[in-house]
Design a protein that fits this description.
Layout lengths: L1 E8 L5 H14 L8 E6 L6 E8 L2 H8 L2 H10 L8 E6 L15
Antiparallel strand pairs: 1-3, 1-4, 2-3
Length: about 110
């Protein structure tokens, strides 16, 4: 399993618009391409800052999704709302608690 963390910073006054676009997109597409779990957090002190957490079964599944027309359309809608390019980190999940799809374990 892979964990993708993405930090998004909206332009001033665009936080709610960014939230709406990302939320709508996440509800309609990535699950069909293998997304296992998704969470989005918003900074209470800086409402233009968001963090996305996505769990993918493999790097290949994520890369395949990032190459879909659906993702490219979404990126074209989202990117103009951002103050700076998204910051992304990809990790291999080595432990997890609270999810039966990959029970708690450690390497």
């Amino acid at each position: 399993m892979q964990l993708l963390m993405v930090k998004l910073t909206a332009k001033p006054g665009q936080g709610d618009a960014l939230l709406a676009i990302v939320s709508k997109f996440m509800m309609r597409g990535p699950v069909a391409h293998g997304l296992v779990r998704y969470s989005m957090g918003r900074d209470e002190d800086a409402p233009e800052e968001f963090i996305l957490s996505e769990e993918w079964p493999s790097t290949q599944a994520l890369e395949a999704f990032l190459n879909t027309p659906m993702f490219h359309e979404f990126a074209g809608t989202m990117l103009p709302l951002l103050m700076r390019p998204p910051e992304s980190l990809l990790y291999r999940i080595v432990a997890s608690i609270g999810d039966t799809s990959h029970p708690a374990k450690a390497d």
